[in-house]
Each structure stands twice: as structure tokens, then as C-alpha cells.
What does this fold into?
Amino acid sequence: MKALWKGTLTVALLSIPVKLYTAVRKRPLEFHLLHRSCNTPLKYERYCPSCRREIPWEEVVRGYEYEKNKFIPLEEEELEAVFPKINRTIEILSFVRFEEVDVLYLDHPYYLAPQEGAEEAYVVLQKAMARTGKAALVRFALREKEHLGLIRPYRHILVLHTLHYAQEIIPPDFIQLPGQLHLDPRVLTMAEELVELYSASPKPEEWVDRSAQALLELIQRKISGGEVEKAPVQEARRVINLMEALEKSLARKGRRKKEERMAA
It folds into this structure.
């Protein structure tokens, strides 16, 4: 895989030449808009309703809407002047415990690899972070934008996650819950038992995008001329009280565990 970025990871006087690789490859199913009668893909034009003509790219400029229908144009030179200078350094600001960073802030993951000749320093830092249970809060520039990031040990390597800025996180203040709830201790105990019964180690290899799988099957059936089957409509579940729901859930999980033991 080709590295998308090369630079230096620095902390104090330690500098480690590193390479950055994307760790996630999203392959969404993309649809085109077609003319129903002839299946021709539709085209979109850059049309100016004021000048009543199509606009070529050399006449296009970015603009910011500061009031309703009021725009301020921004030239590329002006944007470049305020963007942070692109450098090739990942600066470690501090070391933190990974669990201290709320997962809500984690964004895109990248693999961080050593450049040739920097393997020893890279492994020393990776092992030191793994043994101390620490992650590194970093600042770096990528694709003409400054980012905050978090580097953490992952297996035998280091992974860098870009972080959302605080102002990008929407506070959950709009979710209102009743101030005083008098919970039945028996209900809470049964809920805890249910959590324990359904606890298991995560198995990422079993996480499958069922929506994409169903769409691919639909597309394959249409290509081969097969009929499109309608998904069965699930009946709405009867509303039962909380205690009854917990009791039935615990009983059902208990039966399953017993069947699994007998099968083993």
C-alpha cells in the first residue's frame, strides 16, 4: 500500500521518521440518477441563473454565506494565507491515558509506520507507550488542514486517530430525562443480570454490513433477471411492563445457555 504522508514524529528531542497509511477503506454502494425511460445517466451543469449561462471552472470561486442569500467570495490565495503552514511534523503535545479520551472525539484512524532506518526508535516508543498504558495527544497538518490526533499502541504498531474539535461535538443538553425516577431495586438488579448474561467478547470479524449485503443481492438478482423478493414485515411487539420484559428476557437467555451446554 502506498503511504499517503511522510514526516517526522517528535517528542522533546526524539525524532522518528514515519509514514502514514489509511486504516479504513469505505466502499459505499453508489447510485447514479437515471432517466427512467432510457436509463441514461443525468448530467448536472454549473448554471448561473443571473447570467443565464453555464459557468466554466475558471470562473468559479468559493464563497461563504454570512447572511441569508448574502455571500462573500474567497480567492484561493486568501484561503492559503490563513491555512496553517503545511509541515511534515507530528508534534506530541502530551501523553494521556487512552480511556481518558471520550470515544465521541475519535474520528478517522491511520496506521503509523516507521520509515527505513527508524525501526528501533519506533519500536522503543511503541513498547514504552504500551507498557505505561499511555496514548499521545498530537498536532499535525494533513491535506491543507491542521488536525489534533491521538496516537495509541495497537497490536505491535502505532495507530493515529484524528480527533474532532470540542466545538464540533453537539452537547446532549436537548435530551431531557425526568429529574427524579424512583427505581425498583429488583428491576435494577434484573437489568444488571441481563447485561451480564448478554456480555461477550467483541468479534469484529463477524460484524457485517447487512444493508450493503442485501443491496448487492438485489442488484445481482436484477442483473440475472430474477424476481425481487419483498422483505417480510415484522409485527409490532406487544408492549409489556418492564418487570415482565426483564423476566422473560432472562428466562430466554437462560434456556439458550442450557441448550448450548447440552450441545457441547
